[in-house]
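hey team, just a heads up i'm posting the complex here instead of the shared drive bc the drive is being weird again. everything in one block, sequence lines first with there labels, then the predicted structure for the whole assembly after. its two chains so it's a bit long, scroll down
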Amino acid sequence: MSLADDRGLALGGTRDEDEIRRARAARVERTAKWALPLVIMVLAILGWGWIVTANEIPHYILPGPDRVWDSLVTDWGILLEAAYLTGWITLVALVLAVVGGAGLAILFNQSRMLELSFYPYAVILQVTPVVSIAPLIFIYVDSKIAGMLLCAWLVAFFPVLSSTTLGLNSVDHNLRDLFRIYGANRWQRLRYLQLPSALPYFLGGLRIAGGLSLIGAVVAELVAGTGGIGTGLAFRIQEAGYRLNIARMFAALALVAAMGVFIFAALSLLSHLLLRKWHESALSREG
Amino acid sequence: MAVRHHDTLPLGQRPPLLRLSHVDKVFGGDVVALRDMTLQVNQGDFISLLGPSGCGKSTALRIISDLMHPTRGRVEWEGGQGQGDLGVVFQEPTLMPWATVAQNVWLPFRLAGKSYAEVKDDVLEVLRLVGLEKFLNAYPRELSGGMKMRVSIARAIVTNPRLILMDEPFAALDEITRHKLNNDLLQLKAKIGCTVIFVTHSVFESVFLSDRIVVMAARPGRVLTELQVDTPYPRGEAFRTSADYAAHARRASEALREAMGEPA
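-- predicted structure starts here --
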């Protein structure tokens, strides 16, 4: 059996106008992808500086970008320590969200009765704003750290739960039949069929959960205050606000944003690495 | 891979493999998908189930593969059914996109608790048989439609099953690839001597491939008649253009027209 017919033949070295145009457009897009947002950022910072200078806006109302940069440099020690705490809470909450969300999804998938019993409560937890639950949490949970983790977890676990549940239920029906014909047991079906099928869905939920766990951590810090456990970025923002140190507020905010971008980028990279060989979302396609 | 060659025996002398006795399948209490289907499958048979949509061909396959229980009647395997006795090829290649070609073919063994090292030789052998030994580590997305279907066939035969069920496996392929895969399927069957039940809409495919054509009618799904194609194997391109082929195709077409309620 020859496969030459199946593979088609390539005319070596011939490139037509269309192909050259497509390649050029692809090159331009690759550069524009990072260059354009950078240009917009530089323009926005320049515009911001110009507005502050031209209107002589006092720094306790709106500091210029130079003052924010100064604050970032001079307060680097304080801000880094704060970022470390916020980052730590975010990361641990995300890990717990993954364990809890994916674990619950697998449990629900294995037992329809469990799913019917508990899924509505997962939805209720998700739709109730964490800001309104957080004060209650800090009344009943003694440890501030545990309270903050719980807040961040509450916001982050649902996307993992719902996406993984959807993924586990989205198995190709012919593959499911095939597994039945070959006498697969429940564990084999889960391990070799459902979990790999659910992986792209899980990773989609994880990317959302990454951003949400940061939001949860920030909200928890604002509600918890210091309490002698060290202070995170959100608390630094609040504290600097009380002192009218607006430049430090911006500097801390920039760090929170940078942390969010880093989490999103790291999770996108993870997703790409895990799916790049087989999933449509990670495959590059010719023009 | 052990080779059974009952297909070289005349049709009436082949030992039995499987028997469907008076099988009915009724959905929702009143939709009769299959009525009173009785079919004896013998070792080495290549049986095509030919008929219009809704005639119960796929329902029959699902009942044979135990994915569905008959409402009435029985399916009995000669000597009982063991693990690995059945191979299945669906209309779609139905490969796991996250697994390589070798891992896909390993699946039936893997689910039977066998490690890759234990069965590596079998996997390589079937991939050689379908001409894909160089694509062991390729992912399904890297293969053409025809190649994916070969992987699916390799997976179906890797356990050396007693029976292979094929549910319109080539229906979604282009004519050229379909012809080629038909030829290859016959060569493969000659090499491994398996028994095949093949569901198709195509008169020409059924005549080319099978030695028994079971023509089915719809509403309710039932066996209308059985035709025998006594042209000996191997059958090649010469058979496609022979008077013998045309005569069998004419008989099958007439039976199919009757199955569809049109005058012959």
